[in-house]
Amino acid sequence: RKSKTGPTKGDGWQIDYGKKVEGGPLAIGFDESYIIPASLDMFPYLYLKNDKPTAWANTTKAFHRPGPAAEDFEAINCLTDFARESRAYIAARAKSDTPFFLYLPLTSPHTPIVPSKKWQGKSGLSKYGDFLMETDWVVGEVLSELDKQKLTDNTIVIFTADNGCSPQAKIPDLIKKGHKPNADWRGHKADIYEGGHRTPFLVRWPGKVKTGSTSSQTICTSDLFATLADILGQGEKLPATAGEDSFSFLPALLGKAGKRPLRPFTIHHSINGSFAIRRGPWKLALCPGSGGWSAPRPAQALKNKDLSLVQFYNLDDDPAEKNNLANQKRTLVNELVAELVAAIKNE
C-alpha cells in the first residue's frame, strides 16, 4: 500500500487493519479494551478497540521509528483519550453491582515526551515535568469518576510504574532545579542499580489501608497477581503453576506484615541481561558497572580492571550503592549466588 504522506517507511504496511488482532486483551480474559499496540515509539501508531483497529494506518508518522499510523492519531492526545475512555468505562460499570477491574497503563512519561497544549509550561521544570503533571491529571480524572459514581469507598486504587526515570527526562537538569526523579538511588532506567527499579507504589483502599501509612517490605509488580487473588479470597485456590513468582503483599496493605519479609528474595536484571538478587537489605549484582545506560556502561566497565565483577551492597546503610562489600561478605555473596542459580533452574 502507498502512504498518503508519500513513500512508506518502516514495517507494518502489509497488515490488514480491517481485521481483529490475535492475542489481544480480549483473548486473555479482558471483557473490553482500548489500547495502543505497543509504546508511542513503536509502530503502528493507532488505537485498538476490543482488539480491532479504530482506523486504517495510511500515513507515515514517527517519534524515532517511522511507520504506519492512522491519519488522525497524534501522540499528544493519548492521555486525554485514555482519561475519557477510563471515565466512560467506570460510568458504564457503575450501573451494575458486579465488581470490575480497570487496567490503565499510560503512555506517559515514556518517550515521546509530549504534554498536551494546556499542560505545556505548567511545571516550571521542563516538558518532562509538564508531562508528569498531565499524568497526575489523568489519575485525578479516574478518582473523580469514582467519586461521581459513588464507588470510592468500595474501590482499590493502585498507582505504580514499571521502571525508574529515563535519562530522556534530562535528569541532571531536573536535579539542578531541585527535583530528583529517582530520589537518592543510584542510576536510572535500564540499570542494575536501584534507580532503575525503584518506583512509586501507592494504594488507596478506604477502610483497609491506613491513610499516610508506609511499608518497608520489598515487593514487585509481579506480586499483584497473588495479592489480588488473596483480596478476592481465591489465593488458596490458585494452582501451583500459576504465578509462581508472585507473593501476596496483602498483609503489608493491612498493616499486619511486621518485619518478616513477604517474599524470600527479589530478582531483576538490567537491560543487557545482568542479574541481581535482593534479600532483605542485601543486594548482589553480577556485573561490573551499571549493566545499562549510566556510567560505567557494560563495555567500558569490563575494560576497567579496578571494577569487581561482583557487586554487593547493604541498601539500608548504602542506598547510593557506592560501598561494594563483596570481599568482606563472601559467605552472604555465596548464599545469594546459590539462591539465584536455584531460582533460574526452577529448583
UniProtKB/TrEMBL annotation:
Annotated GO molecular function terms are: arylsulfatase activity
> Where's the Sulfatase N-terminal domain?
81-233
Name any one Pfam family assigned in the record. Sulfatase
List UniProt keywords, sorted A-Z.
Hydrolase
Q: What family does the Swiss-Prot or TrEMBL record give for this protein?
A: Belongs to the sulfatase family.
> What is the protein named?
Sulfatase N-terminal domain-containing protein
Organism annotation: marine metagenome
